[in-house]
Amino acid sequence: MRLTKSIPNMFTLGNLYCGFLSIGFAAKGEFKNAAILILIGMMLDSMDGRLARMLKADSALGKELDSLADIVTFGVAPSFLVYYTYFYHFGHLGLIVTGLFPLFGAYRLARFNIGSSKSSLHYFIGVPITAAGGILALLTLFGDRIPNIITSVVFTALCFLMVSRIRIPSLKEVPLPKYGTIVTIFIGCLLYVIYTKTYEKFPYLIYFAAPLYIAYLAYRFIKGKHRREDID
């Protein structure tokens, strides 16, 4: 029973480890690998919350652990990635500027944690740090086709959007089975594009993370389909 309760936290720790590995790859100059690891972290992050609800393993520890993992994988890791690929030209100033991203992200997470649980089911206040970090990872992954000025503008905009009061619609109440096929196809196409762009340097961790995530989506799709048939 205790092992079952720990499963969501294992996924959260996997998310955190992806953030650490991403920073290491970025420091070594393997920027595409670093970006892919952030995307893997997004997969794991999208699973831990749902697994906690499925297994009835929600806990205060899991909530705090999730926030700590998010600030590393989607705050610190994307900042290092953007610095090493774009802002390093500006020296110490570039390092100071990129350091603002995890600061804004940490404030966004803290505000979310103390916010109303009812409102968080329908919308987010400000752009979630997970989405912001994922966008920066994608911009870096396809950076050879995107002008640096666009990345700089998007980076700056995301910093302020995270701490803004803009209401972003939440997908927590959207039934995943209804969109499971679309999401699976999208992720499959994304992984194929990533693979064709990275060749031999494709991180082997994706071979484990991608099938696991797609299997999880398939399970949710089948479970939701059976539930609708039982209701009918």
TrEMBL record:
Q: Which residues form the signal peptide?
A: none
Q: How does it sit in the membrane?
A: Multi-pass membrane protein
Q: So where does this one cross the membrane?
A: 31-47, 92-109, 121-140, 146-164, 176-195, 201-219
Query: What's a GO biological-process term for it?
Result: phospholipid biosynthetic process
Report the enzyme's class at the first EC level: transferase
Q: Which GO terms describe its cellular component?
A: endomembrane system; membrane
Q: The organism sits in which domain of life?
A: Bacteria
UniProt KW keywords: Lipid biosynthesis, Lipid metabolism, Membrane, Phospholipid biosynthesis, Phospholipid metabolism, Transferase, Transmembrane, Transmembrane helix
Q: Where in the cell is it found?
A: Endomembrane system
**Cross-referenced InterPro entries:** CDP-alcohol_PTase-I, CDP-diaglyc--ser_O-PTrfase, CDP-OH_P_trans, CDP-OH_PTrfase_TM_dom, CDP_ALCOHOL_P_TRANSF_CS
- Main subcellular location of this protein, as a coarse class: membrane
GO molecular-function terms, A-Z: CDP-diacylglycerol-serine O-phosphatidyltransferase activity
Which Enzyme Commission numbers does its entry carry? 2.7.8.8
Q: Pfam families, alphabetically? A: CDP-OH_P_transf
Reactions mediated catalytically: a CDP-1,2-diacyl-sn-glycerol + L-serine = a 1,2-diacyl-sn-glycero-3-phospho-L-serine + CMP + H(+)
Give the UniProt family note: Belongs to the CDP-alcohol phosphatidyltransferase class-I family.
Protein name in UniProt: CDP-diacylglycerol--serine O-phosphatidyltransferase
* Biological source species: Schinkia azotoformans LMG 9581
Q: What is the lineage of its organism?
A: Bacteria, Bacillati, Bacillota, Bacilli, Bacillales
